[in-house]
Amino acid sequence: MKTLRDVRVGESARVVKVHGQGRIRRRVMDMGITKNVEIFVRKVAPLGDPIEVNLRGYELSLRKIDAEIIEVE
Amino acid sequence: MSVIIAVAGNPNSGKTTLFNALTGSNQYVGNWPGVTVEKKEGILIGHPDVVLVDLPGIYSLSTNSLEEEIARDYLLESNPDAIINIVDGTSLERNLYLTTQLAELGIPMVLAINMMDEVEKSGTRIDSTALGEAFGLPVVKISALRETQIDELAGAAMEVAQKNRRLLSVHRFSGGVEHALGHIEEVALHEQPEHKQRWYAVKLFERNELVEAELGLSAELKAHIEQDIWQCELEYDDDSDSIIASERYGFIENVLEKVTVRKKAGELSPSDRIDRVVTNRWLALPIFALVMFVVYYVSVNTVGATMTRWTNDKLFGEIILPAVSGKLVDWGVANWLQGLLVDGILAGVGSVLSFLPQMVVLFLFLGLLEFSGYMSRVTFILDRMFRKFGLSGKSFIPMLIGSGCSVPAILAARTIENESARRMTVITTSFIPCSAKLPVISMIAGAFFGGKGWVAFGAYFLGIAAVVISGLILKKTALFQGEPSPFVMELPAYRCPSLKCIFRTTWDRVSSFVKKATSVILLAAIVIWFLTFFGWVEGRFQMLEAGQINHSILAAIGTSIAWVFKPLGWGEWRPVMAALNGLVAKETVVSSFGIFYGFSEVAAGGQEMWMSLRAAFSPLSATSFLIFVLLSAPCIAAISSIRREMNSVMWTLFAVGYMTAFGYIAALMVYQLGTWLQGGVFTLWTGITLAVTGVVLWLIFRPSPQADGRLKRARAGSRG
User: Fold this and answer.
1) What angle do CA B413, A30, B72 make, to 5 degrees?
2) What CATH number is associated with residue A37?
3) B59–A31 CB contact, under 8 Å
4) In 10 A of CB A61, how many CB atoms?
5) What's the pLDDT at B389?
6) ipTM of predicted assembly, 2 dp
7) Do the Cβ atoms of A25 and A69 come closer than 8 Å?
C-alpha cells in the first residue's frame, strides 16, 4: 500500500482512503484529506519530520507517522 | 432581554480581530470552566443588550480537541441567539467545512467572509449572493483588519437573532447519502424538532455514540439504522464518517466552482515565497536562532533589563521608597507599621512591578510572532526534537524566556495548542534558571568555586537536563496519558499583523496576571516580613532589633524543620529559611543570608559573607543547596502564573510538589553520592539515595505504554 509518507517532496498524489482510528483519523479528514483529493508534498522540516503538504488551497503540516494512515495513488 | 451572539470560525481566520472590532474595549477575559482555554465575552459597540461570545478557533465540531469540545458543547447547550461564522476568504474551501456543520445546528447564522481586501488583491472574485443561497445564509464580505463592513455584519447578525427563526440547513449531499439520512430521520427522528433533525441524522449516520445515547434509541431501531448505513457504505466503498467528510468537501467544491472566479492558479503567493526561505531545510534553523536572539536580546537583555533596573533602583529605590519612608517618619507612624509598609508591602509590590516591563516587551514580541504566522512555523521546525519529551516545538519559546523570568515564560506557554504539552511546559519551564537566580549562583560560585564561569554554565545545563528528564518521566505517567492529540497543523499564510490586536492581547495577558499575582505576592511579602522581624526575646513577644534575628519566628520555624534538609547536607535553620524566603523572589536568598549573618548591606553576589558561608557549608553541601534553590518550587509570582495557566488548584499543587521533589532528590543524589564517592562511609542515607536513584532511572527508561499503543494502532490501521 502506498501512503502519503512515500510521496516524494515536490510530487503530488491522490487520496484513496484514510485508514487509522480515533482522533487522528477524524482530524485528518476534517482538515480536508478525503477520498480523491489531490495532495502536493511541499517540503520536509529541517529535522526530517514533520512534512508540509498543500491541499485545498492551504498549507498543512503533519507527522510522518500520521501520514502513514493516508493511502494514496 | 439581552441577545447572545457566538463568534465561531477556524483558527487564523481573523476571529480575534473581528471580535475586537465588534466589541472595542468592552471585554471580559476569563477561562472556560475547568480548562486552560481562554474565554472572551464582550458587549457589541453601541448595543449594550447584545453580548458576543468568542468561541475557541476550531476546524470542525467533531471533538478532536479540547477547543472543539468547548465550542460544540457551548453551541448545543447554551443555545445562543445567533452565530457569526467568520471564514477566511483566501482559504474558503477548508473554512466552509465548519460552516456546513454549524448550519446543521438550527441556530440562526450569518456568514462573514473575511480578508476581502486580500482576496480582491489576488484577483479572485466571490459571488456572495450565490454563496449565501447555496448555504441558505446571509453573507457579508468584511475585512476585520481594516474594519470594513463591520457594522453591516453586526446588523445582519442582530437581524437573524431577532427574527429568531430556527435555521434549516439547505446544503445537500449526493443521492445515496441523502437517501440514508432521509430514512434515519423518518424512523428515528420524527419526534425531534425539525431544525434539529439534520444534525441528529448526520451524527447517527456517523455512528456517534454520544448522540445515540442522548436519543435513547432502542436496540431494534439501532439495528435498523445500521442497515441503512451499511448499505450506503457498500455503495460508496468507504466508512460512514469518511463519507460524510467527503460529501461536505464535495458540496463545497461544487459551490465554489460556481461562485468564485480565480485569476491565476499555480502562481506562488507572497506567503509561499516567504516560506521558501523561512522553513527552508538549511536556513530554517539559523533564521529561527536569529529571531530568538533578537527577541531575547531586546526583551531580556536591553529594553527589559534596563526598564526593570529603572523600576527597581530609580522608581522604587530612589523615588517611592524614600518619599514614603520620609512621609511616614514625618507623620510619626509607629515603627512596626513603617516596617510593614516599607519592607513588607512596598517591597512586595516592587517585586511584581519590576518584571512588568520585561513582560510587556516579551508579550509584544510574542503577539507579533503569533499573529504574523511565524509561531506555527516554529512548531513545524522544532516538533521532532521536542515531542520526544512530551513538549511542543513551541515550548522552546517559554524555555528561552524563562532564562529571563519564569513569569512571562509560563504565561507564554499559552500559545501551545496541545493541552498536555502545554501543561508539561508550564511545569518544567521554571527549571531554567531565571535572572533572579543568577545572584544565588554567583554567590555560591564566588564563595566556593573561585567565581568560575562553569558554575553558571552548569546551572543552565542542569536546568535543561531537568526539563528533558522531567519530560521523559512525566509523559509516561497516567497524568499525561490518553490518546495523543493529533499533530495535524495548518501553516497559515503570513500576514502583516494588526498592531491593535497585538497591543490588545498584550494588555489582556499582562493585566490579568497583575490582578492575580499582586495580592498573592503582597500577602507572602507581609508574612515573611512578620516572621523575620518578630519573635520572643526573653519570653516576651516583640519586634526584633538588629542582631536579634536568632529569636525570630523564622528561626524557630527553621530550626523545627531543618531535619528535613539534613540529608542534603545543610540541616541548619539559616540555609533552610534562606531557601524558603526564595519563594518571595529568588534573589532574596542572598539578602536573607545577609540578614541571618548580621550584615546590614550585601552586594548582589554576597561577597561580604563568603567567609560565613564557607564556615556553614562544604563545597559539596553548597552545591546541593544551589541545586535545591535552582530546581525546587519557583517564586510565588511564578506559582501564581502556574495557577493562572493551569486554571486548577490540583495541577498547581502537583507542579509545585513535583518541582520541589525533583529539586530535593537531585540535591540528595549529589550530596549523598558525592560524600560517599569522596571516600565517605556508606551510611543508611547512601543506601536510600542509591535506591531512589534506581527508581528515578527506572522512571526515565521504562517503556512508554502510550507509544506502544500508538504504534499498534497505526499498524492495525495500515492493515485495515
Assistant:
1) 65
2) 2.30.30.90
3) yes
4) 23
5) 87
6) 0.97
7) yes
Under-50 pLDDT residues of chain B = 709, 711-720
**How much is the pLDDT for B718?**
42
Which of B65, B91, B720 minimises the CB distance to A57? B91
The answer to whether the Cα torsion of B709, B710, B715, B718 is positive or negative is: positive
**pTM of the shown model:** 0.85
Q: Is B92 on the interface with A (CB under 8 A)?
A: yes
Q: Does B289 touch chain A (CB under 8 A)?
A: no
Between residues 233 and 272 of chain B, which touch chain A (CB distance below 8 Å)? 238, 241-242, 245-246, 249
Taking CA atoms, B401 is separated from B305, B366, B389, B506, B632, in Å, by 13, 10, 19, 15, 19
d(CA B69, CA B91): 24
Tell me yes or no: is domain B175-261 CATH 1.10.287.1770. yes
User: For the domain with range B3-163, which CATH number is right: 3.30.420.40, 3.90.850.10, 3.40.50.300, 3.20.20.70?
Assistant: 3.40.50.300
Number of A/B CB contacts below 8 angstroms equals 144
Residue to test with chain A: of B64, B101, B269, most A Cβ within 10 A: B64
Q: Comparing C-alpha atoms, which of B645, B638, B643 is closest to residue B653?
A: B643
Top pLDDT among B306 and A3 is at A3
Q: Are B3 and B81 in contact (CB under 8 A)?
A: yes
Q: How far apart are CA A42 and CA B540, in angstroms?
A: 78
